[in-house]
UniProtKB/TrEMBL annotation:
PANTHER family: PURINE EFFLUX PUMP PBUE. It comes from Variovorax rhizosphaerae. It is a multi-pass membrane protein. It comes from the Bacteria. This is MFS transporter. PROSITE patterns: MFS. Its main location: membrane. Gene3D superfamilies: MFS general substrate transporter like domains. CDD domains: MFS_NepI_like (cd17324). It is found in: Cell membrane.
Length: 385
């Protein structure tokens, strides 16, 4: 039986996630250039990711409550305008401290957009297409990794990181226009009452899923945050070679997300989450084998397949467990994802600064094992009422 096409608004939300995802990951892709520009160490420059991740972690649930009654077309379009303005401001900063503070303001946009876009899906598609709709919208992050991040890294490597930030700003304005023209007005997910928020926090199943997200993100970002300097250190990769490696990783991520989007309603979000976590753990275990570009690309293959697909599965898992609580639970999922990024980037930076780079993949692998164990436990818990 042929499934009906998804509404045009979901394509605009996918494009918005593409811009958001590219901007979020751009610091990782231009870390060498930012470090050289301000004369700070790579580990110090990496704390831009830690600070930004903390903003999203604490901002996502607070902002979800603040904007609960907003029309989603206006909210998401204005969020992209904010993203554009802040990225231009960041490109003009003359000091590392100025960039750090501006980056924190910039990250208010990801704190709102991804979670509220996912929560809006349940009001744009029938119930039997929710999993497909959520994972489709999150494809934008996979596309950011296969197209946006490599292009941003290439722009940063050849024309400076400031040029790459301005390019994100232009894309954000185009995304805002797309959302405004395609998304219907009057989309307002029901605001969660105080009692509903309490039910979210008291649900072992929902909180367990959120902890899985945090562990997945932590395990990845111990290494992912420092891909660029590690590629340069281990393989002598220049900006062009790094861009190709980012593109390969992103292509794997896109394939993985497409597969999850196609089969998630059939196999279940919990099983999809477990499989994608196992894939990421495999790459972290095999990391030391990447002694040349070809082998390194093969080592990255499972990680790429699981990386973005894992978070798609986690979002669909939350929406499926409690659709009425999705505006809050998916916002908290963003918190889990970004607190993991903050912890992972900070841990990886500490290991890198203390000449313990050989331990980075083991820390990531151990964290992934914990995520897998918890994910299995969550499946045995009762669904929230």
């Amino acid at each position: 039986m042929t499934r009906p096409p998804l509404p045009a608004a979901l394509w605009a939300l996918l494009a918005g996630n593409f811009v958001i995802g590219t901007g979020v990951m751009l610091v990782a892709g231009t870390l060498n250039e930012i470090s050289a520009s301000f004369g700070v160490s790579v580990a110090a420059a990496g704390q831009l990711m830690t600070a930004g991740a903390l903003v999203v972690c604490f901002g996502a649930p607070l902002l979800a409550a603040l904007v609960a009654g907003w029309d989603r077309r206006a909210l998401l379009a204005l969020t992209m305008v904010w993203y554009a303005v802040c990225n231009v401001a960041a490109s003009l900063m003359p000091s590392y401290l100025g960039l750090l503070l501006t980056r924190m303001l910039t990250m208010l946009a990801p704190a709102i957009f991804t979670a509220q876009a996912a929560a809006s899906v349940s009001l744009l598609v029938p119930a039997d297409q929710r999993g497909r709709g959520v994972t489709f919208v999150f494809l934008g992050w996979s596309m950011a990794s296969v197209l946006g991040l490599p292009l941003g890294a290439w722009l940063g490597g050849h024309y400076g990181w400031r040029t790459a930030f301005v390019a994100i700003a232009v894309a954000a304005l185009l995304s805002a226009a797309s959302i405004w023209w395609t998304m219907p007005g009057g989309i307002r997910p029901a605001a969660l009452t105080r009692a509903a928020w309490v039910r979210v926090f008291r649900s072992p199943a929902l909180m367990g899923v959120l902890m899985v997200t945090a562990l997945q993100s932590t395990g990845q970002f111990v290494l992912f945050a420092y891909f660029a300097p590690l590629l340069k250190l281990q393989l002598g990769a220049d900006a062009t070679a790094q861009s190709f490696m980012w593109a390969w990783f992103g292509a794997c991520g896109l394939v993985g997300n497409l597969l999850v989007s196609r089969y998630i309603d059939r196999i279940g979000a919990g099983r999809a989450s477990l499989v994608t976590t196992m894939l990421m753990a495999t790459s972290l275990l095999l990391w030391p084998l990447g002694i040349n570009f070809l082998i390194f690309a093969l080592v990255l293959l499972p990680w790429g397949l699981g990386c973005f697909a894992a978070n798609s599965a986690q979002q669909a898992r939350l929406v499926g467990l409690a659709p009425a609580m999705a505006p809050g639970s998916v916002a908290l999922n963003s918190s889990g994802m970004f607190i993991g990024q903050a912890i992972g980037a900070a841990t990886g930076g500490w290991l890198l600064a203390h000449d313990a780079a050989s331990w980075m993949h083991w820390v990531g692998f151990g964290t992934m094992l914990a995520a897998m164990a918890l994910s299995i436990m969550v499946e045995r818990l009762p669904r929230p009422q």
